């Protein structure tokens, strides 16, 4: 992601609500659960948002740990966001990070600080303006 503009294209035909998502030569589906009319063949958009934050956080931590030579074997990140009807100006995403490896308490604490340095965390922590054409 360094230095490049992030882009994505989504396409939805008359399918309910299985959406094709393209970015950087990659392809996934997004969808809604069956109980709201979807086919449940892909992650819901909110889950994709959480997945973006979680994967970016894990990658940022891994890059730092590798650069510093830390004995970090495994990173697990569990995320949750409030229900759609509860979303407001103060929406909260909860993130629990678990590290496996021979790490000191200081190293674990430093990795938690580094977690907040991921680009997606920075984007989501600031006001976002969406311009639609």
Radius of gyration: 17 Å
Any idea of the CATH topology of the largest domain?
Answer: GMP Synthetase, Chain A, domain 3
Provide the residue-averaged pLDDT.
92
Largest sheet: 3 strands, antiparallel
Low-confidence segments, given as residue ranges, are: none
Number of DSSP helical runs: 3
Query: What is the β-strand count?
Result: 5
CATH architecture of the largest domain: 2-Layer Sandwich
Cross-sheet strand order for the largest sheet: 1-2-3
Q: From the helix content, strand content and strand pairing, which structural class follows? A: alpha+beta
Beginning-to-end CA distance, first to last residue = 25 Å
Number of domains: 2
Helix content: 25-40%
The CATH homologous superfamily of the largest domain corresponds to: K homology (KH) domain
Written as H for each helix and E for each strand, in order along the chain, the element string is EEEHEEHH
Would you kindly provide a written description of the structure presented here, covering whatever features stand out?
By secondary structure, the protein is an alpha+beta fold. The chain folds into two domains: 1-42; 44-127, K homology (KH) domain (GMP Synthetase, Chain A, domain 3), CATH 3.30.300. The chain has helices at 45-68, 105-115, 119-124; strands at residues 9-11, 19-23, 26-30, 72-81, 93-101. It starts with 8 loop residues before the first strand and ends in a 9-residue tail after the last helix. The model has no long low-confidence stretch (mean pLDDT 92).
Fold blueprint:
Layout: E1 9-11, E2 19-23, E3 26-30, H1 45-68, E4 72-81, E5 93-101, H2 105-115, H3 119-124
Antiparallel strand pairs: 1-2, 2-3, 4-5
């Amino acid at each position: 992601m360094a230095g490049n503009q992030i882009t994505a294209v989504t396409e939805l035909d008359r399918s309910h609500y299985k959406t094709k998502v393209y970015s950087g030569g990659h392809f996934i589906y997004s969808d809604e659960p069956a109980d709201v009319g979807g086919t449940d063949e892909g992650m819901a958009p909110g889950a994709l948002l959480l997945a973006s934050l979680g994967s970016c956080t894990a990658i940022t931590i891994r890059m730092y740990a590798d650069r510093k030579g830390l004995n970090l074997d495994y990173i697990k990140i569990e995320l949750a966001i409030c229900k759609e009807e509860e979303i407001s100006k103060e929406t909260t995403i909860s993130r629990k990070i678990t590290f496996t490896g021979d790490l000191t308490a200081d190293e674990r604490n430093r990795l938690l600080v580094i977690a907040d340095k991921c680009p997606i965390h920075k984007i989501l922590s600031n006001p976002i303006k969406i311009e639609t054409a």
